[in-house]
Every structure is written in structure tokens, then in C-alpha cells.
């Protein structure tokens, strides 16, 4: 059930009675603006996608009804998150960040959904990672209520792409700088009026190929040129809720590495390169995180009535992905962050959502997205 405008305002005013706790490094207001930054990005992403691609486009790509209506509901959720956090910050006397300009590399329905899947997963990890830093329980509850909704979005999109909706029993938390490193790749510029958040981007780390990764397999990683260190001191750490899972890493020269996928990671996973193998923290992360999807695809999924799958004939060739023209962020992406125009999302979602039945081999969209990430990695430095 959606918040009415009155309920939304009331909830936001309720947060105003909470205390904006300050610590030496980051305040609760910073955390809410950090969350608002991510919600603006997600809301803008869906707004752009629903503007660029019609209901018919989604059907041609194999997304069966009511997928499009449910996607519009997801877009509406993200816009309501923006409104909620904006009102809460204003009610508490803090200045909300405003809209940024974004550079999303989606060029068709397939790449749009691939990127949406990634962003929703990052959103879940971002809220989970920030939870421990929120001092006031009122803000913690509000953030938690958004987190659970983001997790549902993520599960729905994962299933639509033939991935396990819940690939493992525990989600992976990401810290502020790790999330900002990923988000920065899609931020072209922000208003000068936005306050600077206490975050920084690490040198980028990308996975050039999005071929399926399984436990024990090797994948290639590419670090941005800004990462300079003795290769013998570099280690790979997969981020999990119980701490880093260390993985075998081999330098192949020119900022490239091969990493062996360890046991204990599954689904949308994050790997960073560290100096030493004692911890993975802001002090010793050299590059990353890179996003790696770990696990075998599920194949077609669906509930309810007939759910037609997507055949390979509906998917573009890999050469088409590699030739896409990707937007390049500008140098002003460094620190000021922000909101976006309202979304018109009058959807009638099914009470029995139907996953689109996509082929489990649909990885082409991921290859395109990560091709873009690789292209901007050096630019970020």
C-alpha cells in the first residue's frame, strides 16, 4: 500500500523529533543525505528508462504482463523514497541534496534491466552497510523500511533475468566509500549547492567479461591506472556480512588480475583489492569494489498463468554490446550529490506478479554495463 501525501508528511515529521546525532566522522543527517543520493539515482534511472522504452518495447524483449506495470510500481516506490527522505531532512532542519545529472549506459530494454538489477542490489547493500552507523533508532527504522522494499525490487529483477531471487542466506553490506565508488560511475555532474558528503571514491575495479562465475573459477579484474602498488602486497577480499572472504589473486600485468572465486560467496558479490590480507577497510582498500555475479543461472521462472520465456533469437549479439556508445561522466562528479523531477507512475500491478521467464543465459546486458564501467575506470582517476 502506498503512502498518501498526508501519511508521508506525517511520517517525515515524526522523524523530525529524532535527534540528528553527530560524530567525528559522519552524522545521521549525512547518512540520510547519502541515502537520498542513492534514491535520486535510482528514481532518475527508472524515470529515464520508462521514458525511453514503452510497454511494447518490454513485450518485444520478452517481458510478459504484468511485468511493465510492476516496474512502474518500482519506479513509484523510488520516487516516494526520494520524497520521504527529502521531507524528513527538511523537517529536521537539514538541507537535502538536490538532483544530479546522470549517465546511464542502457541502450535498450535488456541493458536497462541488467543495470537496474545491479543498482537494486547495490541499494540493498548500501542500506545494510549504513545501518550500523545510524545512531537514532527512529532513523534506523525508517532506513530499514526502505531496505526491505529495495530487497523486494532486487529479488523481482533477479528472477526476471533468470537469477536466483535470494542467492544466499545473508546479503552483503557495503560501506559508504565502497557504495560511492560504484555510484560515481553514473554521476555526470551535481549542483554546486549540494553539500559535500564525507565520502570518497576508491580507484575503480571492473570485471571486463561478465561470463558466468562459479565457485573455483577464475575471472579477470582490471584496476584503474590510479592504483599503484607492489603486486606482491595486493590481495583480493570478497565482502560478506561476517567479514572478508580472501581469494587467490594473481597479477597478469598492466593493472590486470585474475581472482579465483572462493567458497562462501553467491549472487551479486563485491570484491576489493587490499594492501595486505588482515582486513578490508578504508585504510587499506586499493581498488574496488568490482561486482561479480556468482552462481549458475536458474533459467525461466514464473508464477501464476502462462509465462513465455525469451529465446536466444531475441537477444542481441555480443558484438552489438561492444559497439555501444557509452556516456562519459564529467570531472565534476567528485563530491556534490543529489534529487530529480517527479515520476508519473500510475501502475496497476498484479497481486500475483509474473516473472518474465527470461533465459538463464541472459548475460549480454551485464557485459554491456560492465564494458562501460571499464571504460570510465581510468577517467575516475
TrEMBL record:
Pfam family, one: Ferritin_2
Tagged with keyword Chaperone: no
InterPro entries named among the record's database cross-references: Ferritin-like, Ferritin-like_SF, Pigment-catalase-like
Record's signal peptide: 1-18
Annotated SUPFAM superfamilies: Ferritin-like
Sequence intervals crossing the membrane: 363-380
Keyword Transmembrane helix belongs to the record: yes
Keywords associated with the record: Membrane, Signal, Transmembrane, Transmembrane helix
Protein name per UniProt: Uncharacterized protein
Organism encoding this protein: Penicillium cosmopolitanum
